[in-house]
TrEMBL record:
InterPro entries: Elm1-like (IPR009367). This is Mitochondrial fission protein ELM1. One of its GO terms (cellular component) is mitochondrial outer membrane. It comes from the Eukaryota. GO terms for biological process: mitochondrial fission. It comes from Crotalaria pallida (Smooth rattlebox). PANTHER family: MITOCHONDRIAL FISSION PROTEIN ELM1, OS02G0535700 PROTEIN. The lineage of its organism: Eukaryota, Viridiplantae, Streptophyta, Embryophyta, Tracheophyta.
Amino acid sequence: MRPIQLPEPPSPTRGLRGTAEIFESGVHTFVRRAVVIGNGFPASENQSIGLVRALGLSDKHLLYRVTRPKEGINEWLQWLPVSLHKKIDYIIRMISCYSQLMLKSRQKKLMSLPSEKGVSAGLSAVLEADVRQIVNLARETYEKEGPLLVVASGRDTISTASSIKRLASDNVFVVQILHPRLHLNRFDMVIAPKHDYYPLTPEGQKRVPRVLRSWITPRDPPDSHVILTTGALHQIDFTSLRSAAAMWHDEFAHVPRPLLIVNIGGPTRNCRYGVDLAKQLATSLLSVLVSCGSVRISFSERTPEKVSSIIVKEFANNPKVQICDGQESNLHMGHLAWGDAFVVTADSVSKISEACSTGKPVYVVGAERCRWKFTEFHQSLRDQGVVRPFTGSEDISESWSYPPLNDTADAAKRVHEALAARGWKLKI
């Protein structure tokens, strides 16, 4: 097997040095800090943090979240705009509290009313994304700190990010990750995977009823401020892999090679599967074990018990196979750094994108069970020679490579260019 090679990454400040700051266009043109607006989902927030990291601002950013009420009837209201969802939840809880007050009035018990922000209404204690607060931060610190970079990701963050842009357009540069579907001009930059535009293709148009097209498809083809990526943004690059290789050296240095990493996700609306795929995967893994030195299998939080139990039952006592319990938060990084090949279930765009950033062999299982734009994503990767289907006939000791996916670095470069066009520059 080829040795692990992690070349030095290009410096994000290369080309920016050599000119004294006094000769730059002024202190106010330097972007020194960022605000990340997330939705509480790791896969989504990972994209924003990955972009900020690629821009060199990983130590100079604040994390805010747009959170939704949870539990009870709220699980049925996730499709509503987040602002309307919160108002309905507030009204329901107000009615509930007053009802309990009436019932317990004889006992003279005082109950605290829920907060419309949601903190007292059972939400996690997180830094809630408040438009006015972030706008004031951008305005009041502009003279001293310069403009503010705002990076948001996910459907629930769209309203917050666009409002910040509208109220503080002279003080912020707003990047929205994942396609907001409409009003793209409300953001300075939109970063979306190419397969988000699948509904505009002839094949996509055949699958969308005409009456629904205006609701679920992009309105216009991408213009100059829309950046299209192959996969998801993330935090994986040569620097992080090198660091992980050193951190996990004692754990993996003596593991028999080649080391096959298997990442199992869970079925989604557009990638449906169950025990059938688990049995298929187990059979294929048994077939390739002879060419593996060792195998590490990891499950995600979305993996159904009926899927994981089949895998555990088949491999729990196999000396070549270790099933990871997921207790180590950085174990995934160790796997990416030390793994010689990867098998990933087709539902996880993020995990596939991360594995494809290593340049090592990536096999996908279950792509034929996906539909809609995910078929476009998997076909794109196969056309580029980045992934291959996992059939069980593979020789894992056979190494093959490809130009690693560099979506995050490419997106960061475009942000640099867009800031420069505005007369701003990142201060690393």
